[in-house]
Amino acid sequence: MHLSALHHVELCVANGKKIASYFTEKLGYSLRAQRDTVLSKQWVVGSQKSTFVVTEKKKQFQQEHVPFSYFSAPLRQVDSVFNVALEVKNLESVTERMQNVGGKLFHPVTEVEDQSGKVRYSIVSSCCGNIVHTLLDKSQYKGSFLPTFDETFTIRGEEKITHIDHLTYVCHPGESPGIIQWYQSCLGMQKFKTNPTEDLKEGLVIKDGVGMRLRVMDYWPCAESGICNSDPSNGMDETSLKIVIAESLLGKENLHINAFLDGHGGPGLQHIGLSTLDITSCVDSMSRKKVSFRTPPAAYYRNKWKRNEIEAAGYDINTFQQLGILIDSEADTRANKDNQDKFLLQIFTLPLFKEETFFLELVQRKGARGFGAGNVTALARSIEEERQVLKNSNAVCNI
Ligand SMILES: [Fe+2]
């Protein structure tokens, strides 16, 4: 079996059917499994190599234990993406290391079995907001998801999303070094350069009216203590896990980061980058299904550098503007001719929940390892513009 570091991401929402339908009806995901227990209703949706679990908690308090069930709400009782489930090689060791650096053990190592084999798991809190990690050892399991879930293979034609490109956490100013240290200690993750000029100690600092700092980390292929992965030689290997940490610069609060912290009730998982091999047809198809994307400022498409980048990459400027797709040709690496054909295409959805919290990003990479450094300013501005529009119009939800 082809192991991935990231097994699935779980959302806990008030209306599970609605969010599960968003994935299946609008994003092209397939319903892979379901479960209805005394604690919750759950929908497992998948697209090629990405899997989400949508959990709708039942209101009545239940004492019963249900395998793989744990809910971690933010301080505010709002919909939240709270569980980053990981496959690990040494379950006991990773569980213990997380506890040693302050992770709270919500569920000890336990074995669950069905006709497809055994899965062992534990659940431990992370050091960032309400994010928890279900740690999984599936080495003795042949089923497609997890025991106790009813598997329903309803592949819905073409699944346009391939895998999860990255997860982005938001935290308070100054907290990101501690978060990175925590993951380095527990999972052997390492800092990842968002562009060749980035100072790893400082991260990517974006001033100019944005006031944001990004730090990125990815897996470290440590057979003894790290996350399972198959190709450590390639930094953009789809089986690896990349986590971006975003925080406001001290004294220069970023509006959209603050909006997340306020809406969510503290740090947590703000957005997920989903990879596609053809972002143009993907966005076109999703737009027809009424997925609402953030609209970049029109000035972005008037910028001669961006126009050149779009054309050099072989795309049509008007199509990009109509769809709202952004391009980053890794401007910081332009001096290197080997990198001149490398680019990143990206676009962001509006928030999925009632609050201005979680959203999705679509990403198409052609050789680019960065996260659109050249686009961050434009994107942040578009997000802030959108926030003002939403605030003024009181329109909050697009699904
Ligand atoms: Fe992102």
Automatic annotation (TrEMBL):
Domain of life: Eukaryota
Residues annotated as signal peptide: none
One biological process term in Gene Ontology: aromatic amino acid metabolic process
InterPro entries per UniProt: 4OHPhenylPyrv_dOase, 4OHPhenylPyrv_dOase_C, 4OHPhenylPyrv_dOase_N, Glyas_Bleomycin-R_OHBP_Dase, VOC_core
Domain VOC, chain residue ranges per copy: 5-138, 163-325
GO MF term list: 4-hydroxyphenylpyruvate dioxygenase activity; metal ion binding
Keywords (A to Z) from UniProt: Iron, Metal-binding, Repeat
Cofactor(s) needed for function: Fe cation
PANTHER family, A to Z: 4-HYDROXYPHENYLPYRUVATE DIOXYGENASE, 4-HYDROXYPHENYLPYRUVATE DIOXYGENASE-LIKE PROTEIN
Similarity comment: family membership: Belongs to the 4HPPD family.
Name listed for the protein in its UniProt record: VOC domain-containing protein
Species in which this protein is naturally found: Daphnia pulex
